[in-house]
Amino acid sequence: MTPEAYVQDKTAKSGSSFYYAFLFLPPPRRAAITAFYAFCREVDDVVDEATDAGVAAAKLAWWRQEVASAYSGQPNHPVMRALMPHTQAYAIEAAHLLAVIEGCQTDLEQTRFLDFPGLARYCHLVAGVVGEVAANIFGRSDEATVRYAHQLGLAMQLTNIIRDVGDDARRGRIYLPVSELQRFDVKASELLLRTAPHGYSERFTALMQFQAERAHRAYEEAFALLPEVDRAAQKPGLMMANIYRTLLREIEADGFQVLHQRTSLTPLRKLWIAVRTHWQGR
C-alpha cells in the first residue's frame, strides 16, 4: 500500500465529519489535508487505544522522533511520507505536529481540568493548531483567518467534549472543568457512573446547557473573525462547523442524553450539510 493510499484509508475509516469537507477540495489540497488528518488520527489513537500508559508514552515519544526525522529528510511512517511533500506548500511546520502530540500527551497524563483556561489551553493544542494547519491548506490570504481557525477549533472541540461526556467517563476522564462542576453542584462520581438516576438531573442539564451556550458563542465569534476575502477558500472549514453545530443542536434537542449514548449524524446527513454549505457559501 502506498503512503497516499494508507492515509486515504485511515481517513475514510475514521468516519469523521471532516472527510465530507475534504471531498470538495482540489486534489493537491485534498491530499495534504488527508495526510495531516491521518497524522492526527494516528497520534490520537495512541492514547484512545492505550491499555498501558507507559507503552502509550513510549509511542508518543516515537512520534516526536519521527517528526524530527521527517523534517530532516528521512520520514519512515507512511503518514509522514504522505505528508512531507505538502509541508512547504502549505506552511505545515514541525511545531504544529509537535503541538498535536503534546495535546495527546495531556490526555495521557491528565484526566481533569480545574478551570476553563486550563481546558482552553488543551483545546488550543488538539483543535486550535489543527484548525490553523487546515486553514493554511484550504488557502488563506489574511492573517485574521488564523484567529478564526483557532476559535473554530475551540468551538468544535467543545462540541466534542459535550458529545463524549459518557465515553470519556468510561475511560475515567472528565473534561468539564472542576470549577464548573462545583458551580452546578454536579459530582464527578455522578458522571463516572454514567447511568440514571445517578447522572441525569436538573443540575446536570443546567451544566450541559452552560457548556452548549459557550460552544455556540465560540462558533459565532469564529464566524465573525473570518475575513470576507478568505470565505470562499475556507468553505471546507465552514462545512465542518455546520456539521458539528448541527450535532450540538441535536444533543440539545435530546436533552443532553450524553452519559449513556453517543449522538451522531448519518453519513448522508453530513454530506447534505456539506453540499448545502458549498452552495450557500456559509
Question: Any overview of this molecule?
Answer:
The protein is mostly helical. The protein has two domains: 1-109, Farnesyl Diphosphate Synthase, CATH 1.10.600; 112-282, Orthogonal Bundle (Farnesyl Diphosphate Synthase). It is 70% helix and 0% strand. It has helices spanning 3-14, 18-22, 27-48, 53-71, 78-83, 94-109, 116-138, 144-163, 165-170, 178-183, 188-193, 202-225, 235-253, 267-280. Helix 3 runs antiparallel to helix 7, helix 7 (116-138) packs across helix 8 (144-163) and helix 8 (144-163) runs parallel beside helix 13 (235-253).
Whole-Å distance between the termini? 37 Å
Instruction: Determine and state the CATH class of the largest domain.
Output: Mainly Alpha
Named at the architecture level, the CATH assignment of the largest domain is: Orthogonal Bundle
Query: What is the tally of helical segments?
Result: 14
Largest sheet: none
- Encode the helix/strand succession as letters: HHHHHHHHHHHHHH
Shape: globular
Poorly predicted runs of 5 or more residues: none
Question: What quaternary form is this?
Answer: single chain
Could you give the count of β-strands?
Answer: 0
Average pLDDT over all residues: 92
